[in-house]
Amino acid sequence: MPQQQGSQFSQKEGRIALAIQAFKRGQFKSLKAATESYDVPYSTVRDRVNGYPSRRDSRPTNRKLTDTEESTLVQWILSIDQRSLLPRPDSVQQMANLLLQKQSNSS
User: Which residues neighbour 32 within 8 Å (Cβ) at sequence distance 6 or greater?
Assistant: First the structure.
């Protein structure tokens, strides 16, 4: 993500958090007024108030590896790279499939 987009995202997330905080403190009579004051989308703030996480904080439903397995795969790729070998896509896929196989065996 380019620096400018990341900065804009952080600013928007900050404004969303401030709008929610101001609404919960009673500084605004309605959520709509808070979102207009902080220039953030009403639907986004409404969803956050109702407990929905941001996309960045949520886990995709089609993700197969756990955080630990994904971290293990990344460490394996980095160890191959440190040995001046190329981590080929088919090798990475094989390792991911081995992790998934171990996952299904332990279930």
Answer: 42
State how far the Cα of 14 lies from the Cα of 39, in Å rounded to an integer.
Answer: 11
Answer yes or no: is 26 within a domain. yes
| Distance of alpha carbon 22 from alpha carbon 24, whole angstroms | 6
Query: 72 and 42, same structural domain?
Result: no
Residue 86 lies in a domain: yes
The parent domain of residue 32 ranges over 3-49
Report mean pLDDT in 10-residue bins for the chain, 107 residues. Answer: 66 93 95 95 94 82 87 93 91 92 77
3-state secondary structure the chain: CCHHHHHHHHHHHHHHHHHHHHHHCCCCCCHHHHHHHHCCCHHHHHHHHCCCCCCCCCCCCCCCCCHHHHHHHHHHHHHHHHCCCCCCHHHHHHHHHHHHHHHHHHC
Record the pTM.
Answer: 0.56
